[in-house]
Amino acid sequence: MSEKDRVYSPTIFVVDDDEGMRSSLQWLLESEGLRVETFGSAQDFLNSYYPGRAGCMLLDVRMHGMSGLELQEHLREQEIQIPVIIITGHGDVPMAVRAMKSGALDFIEKPFDDEKMLDAIRRALGIDKLRRERQADRANLAARLANLTPREHEVMLQVTDGKSNKEIANALGVSSKTVEAHRARVMEKMEARSLAELVRMVLAAGIN
Amino acid sequence: MTVFAVVFGLLVGGVVWEVLDNFQQKRLSAIFRQELEAELHKRAAEAYADFDRQVDSISHLARLLANHRQLALHLEPIHWYPDDGQRIREYRDSQPPWLPPPDRWRPSVAPSHIALIDATGRLREVYQMAEAQLPHGLWVDPAPFLTETRGRGVFSVVDGQTLLLVSEPIEDQYYGRVGSLLMVVPVDTAFLAAAVEETGESVITAILDGDTQTVLASSAPEAVVVGDTSEKLSRRFVLTYQSFQHYEGSEFNLQFTTLVRQNYLRAVTGRVAKHARNQRATAALVFILVYSLLFMVVSNRLSRALKRLAAFSQSALGFTQPARSGGNQLLVLEDWMRDYIRRVRDAREEMRERHETEMQASAALTAAIMEASLDSIITIDQTGRIIEFNPTAERVFGYRRGQAVSRDITTLIIDEPYRQPFRNLLAGFLETGSGQVTDARAEMIAVGRDGTRVPVELAIKAIQLKGETLFTVYFRDVSARRRQEAEIRALAAFPRESPSPMLRINRVGVISYANEASEPLLGYWGCRRGQTLPLNWRVRIHDVLDSKRPREEEIRTEDERFFSLLMAPIPELDYVNVYAREITDARVAERQARQRQTELVHVCRLSSMGEMATGIAHELNQPLSAIVNYANGSRRRLESGRVSAEDLSEPLQQITRQASRAGEIIRRLRALVSRQPVQRETVHVNTLVNEVLSFVDYEIRKFGVRVETRLGEQLDDVRVDLVQIEQVILNLIRNAIDAVIDRPAGKRLIRIATRRVPDGFVVIEVEDNGPGLSAEVKSRLFEPFFSTKNTGMGMGLAISQTIAEDHDGKISATDSEAGGALFRLALPAAGASLQSKAAAS
Fold this sequence. Notes:
Mean pLDDT of chain B: 81
Strand order of the largest sheet of chain B: 1-3-2-6-5-4
Structural class of chain B: alpha+beta
Number of helices of chain B: 23
Oligomer: heterodimer
Strand content of chain A: 5-15%
Largest sheet of chain A: 5 strands, parallel
């Protein structure tokens, strides 16, 4: 495992109202060294989960009380972005479709093919990890952007828009020397090694 | 009687007493007086003997003292010389030396003085033992009082004192006579008392002076005073005199007198008389008693014998009690006898007359019987010759009596083929000897004069007379009976011709009759006519006979024919008539209808099956998936080698558990699908409800329907076909689910309740909060192919109602309080159902 992976320690949240199903999934997943937490109902899960927790969720569509779809709905309303793998019995295709539309990552029919299941989980965890990294990058970028002065911010936008220093100096009514200085400061503050990188950052930040 | 006996006894006793008492009184008195006198003489003699013995003992004492060595020693140095002037030596308080020590010689009657007198008759020494002085006469001159005879005292009166004087010669050591020892003993009260001590108090002894007849001394001075004369004494005493024969030497004429008190004698006499009288009285009483008893016993015996004789006569001869009925017959014995004899004679006469009358009456009666008898009665002798021919015989056979008598009965009346048997019959009587066989019966044909043949039953009775045997032959015309029998036989053909089985079976189960049509039943029982039914049917026959009530049974033969049997008991003849009816067609039709219904139910079930298959598949998926997970997890661990055998125990257990769960689901599925033969089981309604709820569990969860159950406790079981009734309940619940499906999620409610209602029914209510039933729907609810659902067949409730009715139950629908519909399935409780069936039968 890479060093990055060790930092990322995900949990598999199993939500199923069938006790046998829960513990058998736990047994299966733990054989792969995964950390597993099980919940008998959607409500139990909601009571103990907080958004910062990494991992993915195995969700039974049919449950007493709040169903899997309802939970999905709820998570979306709460803007909790945890990858959801729907587990379903045979013949629940319409419901699976609904789940996928609601943003489920995958759906697996019971009984499970263990490889397929683990693949799905790995994929989900990968997505989660990626999502979390992006989130971290975006936060980083935002912090750097916040360091810029309004003038530097203006200059950065002009630069990434492909304008030359002169054009920028004209537009801002300053000398091109000044523009050059601002530009250098922006590159420094944004830790951008090249213009292209700066452009990517601006795009990522979505501020253009 | 008793009183009479007692009076008689008393009378006899009184007479005996009166005669014997006087006579015996005198006799006894005389005898007693004689005896008394003899007794008195004896007493007197005894008293005298005692007295004499005492005198003797004193004499012996005197001799002992005189010859004692002490005295001899005393006398040794003394020499008394006549007129030596010596004083008389007196000893008063101390004992003289010439006497032995006092303990050696003290006598019972003490002497008053003992004196020593010398050879010349002078008093020399006196030992005064009593108070009184020696009488002067003795003092002065004792010589005359000395006796020559040794060892004999003399009685003497000296100075008015009666004394016994005993003298003994005394000698010195060398046997030289020195003088005499004189012992003076006063004959006083003490003396006499000592003498008569042994004779008894009733006797007083006294010494009388023979000349003056006065008392000198007595043993009882207070009764007999000294100086009393005998004459005076004889008033109070009986006196017996005795002279002192041995003291003749005395100059005094003294008499020893024994006195017995007159009143003592009288008392004794009186006592004896009284005793004798008591004895006599007792004797008399015993006499009275014995005589009374004897009299009573004898008279009772006699009386009883007479009474018995009377009673016997009364019953044997028929006259009333010959004499008085009560009391003692002895008293009236003579009258009784006379009367009795007369009555016996009368009775004998009367009986003779009565006997004659009876004989006449009997003869008349016999004649009348003969004449009036419905049977022909013909008397014949042993050769068969007719002797008597009664009017009925005349009528039946057409012969006058005069024509028939003396003819041979066999040829006259008996039809040709029966003549020999008839003769044999008669011969049989004669062969077996007289008295062995007295009657015989037979059925034959008789022929009348006009040739008509009459079936008869004849009875022959033999009559033994002196020297010969007669026969009375009774002919009974049985032609009427024959006709009846023929009719009965014709009637008996009825069941034979019946197309339905008819049988008659007796109590022990033997088929006594079975008509042609009964063959299938006989085949069913596996027995033939005259054989016994199988045990279970024997029991039924028995029950029917005991209960006296007809009973119906239905049987199915092996070739699929059905019979309804009515067993009708005929208790008075102890058999059962069985009337059977073939109902094969009806039964086959019923069975087909039922089969069609079963099939329909199954179709219905299969249709609901399809709908439920998804749910069940899902359910089955759960445990299967779990099993796969456990297996895969375990495999992975094993492959990576990161697991111990112990770690695998739990998942393996889980696998087992989940597999069982899957099996359970499959079992339920099979129960739902399988088409079981119609069979009823006793089951609790709550069990049914729970089972059905497990079938629809998936749907309930799927649609989020809230199910409230209110299952009653202590409900009676119901006896139902499980599959069918579960289908009904399933239909009701599924209808309810369909009804609430349009309600928003979370508001879908079904209530299921079980409870008991009156009339022995248990109900299951399924209630929903759906849209409810409109009036139109309600009226057509149970019609086939009526449905409110788009996909419905419209068969569910129709079939459910059919099933319910098949179980003697009913489905009804009303509005629910929850707003929807309420369906109520009512089923009879198992117990109630049995009762109603019992009542129906």
